[in-house]
Amino acid sequence: ESPAVLDYLGRRAARMASELPPVPDSLDAWEKHRDQLVAQLEDGLGLPDREPMKSAIMGTDPADDLVIEEVAYLWAADTFASATVIRNGNPSAGRPAIVITPGESGHYTFKPYRKAVDALAREGYLVLFIDDPRIGRRHAPHAGLYATASAAGTQVAGIQVFDALRGLDYLLTRPDVDPHKI
Known about the structure:
It is built from five helices and five strands. The N and C termini lie far apart (46 Å). The protein is 40% helix and 21% strand. By secondary structure, it is an alpha+beta fold. A hairpin with a 2-residue loop joins β1 and β2.
């Protein structure tokens, strides 16, 4: 028997691949194509402008061998996002870093995430766990977030993409993070 779903997906992937533009043949062509795609994504997702980063550590809590920092950083137009930084107690510079976007109703304090996040921090990573926009300090009720985002011309996926971009921007300002290991 033929796996019907697999066949369908294979045909669909082949059709989509045949509609793709040709592969650029030079570095300049790749960079131009990339710039066009980024502009299309920014426009389609309704992303705000990326302003120069401003941030503050709102509180620090040493927890056994880890340090937990509550941070706020500029999201857009004087609006700040909140996140939790989890790192080991070693004050070394040049550590690798990871951005974890919240997914569905995620926050570092939720137990399913803690074991993996804490293990990464103990291995020397600085982990930036971005607060979900609908809970905690960024509290925006689920339905309100979608309605307001749509009214503002921003896709909900755009909020998630911009969260990650601004998280990366924030990590680049930290002297304890190696910018080549994010």
